[in-house]
Structure formats: structure tokens, C-alpha cells
Amino acid sequence: MMRKGLNWWICLLVPVVLLSFCSNSLAFQREPIEGAGWHYPWKDMYSSWKPGPRGFDEKYFNQDAIEAYGWKAKDVDEIKDLLPPSLYTVVKNPQDWGPRRINVTKYIEYEGTQWQKYLDATEKYRGQPKIDEEGWIRNYKAGCPFPNPKNGQELIWNFKKKYSEDDRILSVAVIITNRSGQDRYQSVDGNLLYFDGRLEFDPKPLYTPNPNKYHRIDVYASSHPYEMQGTLSVIKQFDDPSKMEEFWLYLPALRRVRHLSAAQRTDRLPGGQDLMWEMFDVFNGNVTNYTFKMLGQKEMYVVHNGHPVGEWIANAHMSQPNDYYQKVNVYINELTPKDPNFPFSKMILYSDPKAFFGYYGEWYDRKGRLYMATQFQYVPEKGTANPIPNMTHIDVQTIHSTSYAFTNPRMNYNITPSYFNLQNLKKEYPAR
To answer: Mean pLDDT in the chain?
Structure first.
């Protein structure tokens, strides 16, 4: 009886062990793409990739791939329905855009005390935020304003009030690539301070006093090339639908501060980038200038927990060409400008269903053709859910791109409004 019972257990265990072995054998390490690396040309603080003070958990560096599509892998047509049109076009046409591969890995949940603070704030203030007749959010403090969005308007406010750090200094190498594969480089710090939704530093959840009713202040400080060193772009956004954003530009060569018109928000950024103010953070427009239609949710491949180290291929388009992708049931929102003379007919925004930050944004021209697109590829810092982004902006029609590869990210750095004083910024980022 003992032997028969033992044989019975062995018969049960053998298939389980074999199944486990086969399952593990299906996972593999991503294959390198020749030429991918950090190719920044100047010997300064941006000359190599650095992880920042918090670093990244080891589990993000060598994730087990389940499948791979694109360059020297499976045909991307197999997952066409799981990609936005812009990314499918890029991966399908390496002769135009260069090598790009989608390595499918396991989705890793958010974690850390800051993420829990966001969840707690969502519950604490549940039901308090409201959208007024102008389409503006009122009585928002922190967390997700509409955890179960019923329409595109609630969905866009979830995006605008997405999970985020209180402030940041994000150093990036900017790679601008033309149709012929010629690269130009810039380096810039993106400095940011939020005045609501604050979870880490006092005053929180609202920054008070705030007599100017700021929502956020951004500063983009250029270090290279030489002729742009010390150039400062300052954007001030307000928690007031009647106040348009303020744009200020300090030009060290002229020693002058210029006040730019808000009408220039669809102009390209300095240096010929494939990026306009309206596209910052995937979408950075004034909500009252658009109508919204929630197109539902759809499973798509996105970079939710990507590879931490910044990479690109010299003379090829788009950073992070060999990243880790995960399947996420994203929200899709269609944005239509109210202004009939606006240079775009619509924008499609693909956002995370939990933290509501954007993965993809696609802009269509007046004839309804795909024109410009954005991809954000995230990896969280160690011990947090702070999403550190690599960003790529492309002009689909002219085959032109601008990639942002981060280095030394400083998130929740405890910046105060006085940091954004022009005299202080000129000390932080001296001109030539």
C-alpha cells in the first residue's frame, strides 16, 4: 500500500514539475540591439546615465521576457491591435525609424509609501471634487478626483491630477533626429513644482499661501549646445479657467526676459524639437479649450515598468529602442479643440487606469491624418511609484523625432517657490 501510494503521488508530481520547467523555459532575457547605448557628445554632468539618489530596484534591470516583437523578433502585425497607430508605424518600418523591439514582460504592481498616500488621499477626499459649468475642477486637494470616471471630462481631470511627485529636477539628454538620420543634441533640466495633490512635503496637500493661484510652475533650463547655455523657459499654470498660462523666456545672449503669448503654445520648442507646449506631459492644454469623449478601455502594450538605463541608437529615431512592455487596460480619451482654427483636428490620449499618467498621445491634422505623436516609457524609483519617464516625440509625416533620455532624476527634492525666482535660476544655470 505504501509503494502504491508513493507511485500515485509521483504520477501527480511529474506533470506539475514538467509544466513548471516548461513555463520557466519560455521566459528569456532580452537580446541586445547593436549600437544601443548612451551617445551624448559633451563631457559634463549629462555625459553618462546616472540612477539618481534613490536608484532603482534590481528587479527592473533584468526582467524575464515572455515574447518579443519587432526588430529581429516576431512580426509586429501579431500585436497590431495592442499598439497605438503611431508605435505600430514606427516598429513596422525600421528602414525609416531604425530598430525597435517590444519585449513583453510581467506587469509589476505599484508599491511604496508614496503610492499608498495617493490611495489614502483618494479615499479621504472621495466625492469632494466637482466639475463646474465651465468644465473646471473645483474643491480638489489630492488623490484621484474621479476614481471611476463616467465620461471624458472626468477622465481628463484624472489625467491632469494624476499620481505624481510634489516636485522634481529631471535632467535629460535631448536627441533630435531628422529624416536622413542626422542627430543634434541638447541637454536640459526640467524643473517642476506642484501646488496641489501634494503627498510628501509640507505644506500639503495644497501649497499655501498661494496668492497667485498657481497649479504648477515648470522651468526648462538649457546647458548645451553652447549657444543655448543658460536659456530659461518658464511656464506658469493657474488653478483658474479665466487665466491663461504665462510663458516667459530668458535669453542670456540678449540679457532679456521675453513674455511669450499663450497663442504660441502650438509652436515647436527651441532648437527644432518635435514638441510643442501643448504636448508636454503627453497633454498640457487648458481643459476649457477642448471637448472630451471617453472611448472606453482597451488592453494595450505600454511601458509601465521599463528598463531603467537610458539608451538610444546614434543616427536612428527614438530613445529606449529595446524596452520592456506590459499589457495594461488603458483608458482612451478623444480630445477635440473648440477653436475651429486650431492647427489640429483632434488628439487621442491613452492613460493608465490606476495612476492616470499618459503612455501615448496622438495628434491629427486638420485633414484627419496622424501628424505628431508622443510615447512615455516609465520606470519607478526604488521604494516608490514615482514614474521616471523616457520620452519620445515624433513627426509622423516628415519622419523626424525628438527623444528625451533621463539621467540623475531628483524626484521629491523639496523645491520651494523661491527656487523659481529668475535671479536664483540664473545662479543654478549660469550662461556662458
So the answer is: 90
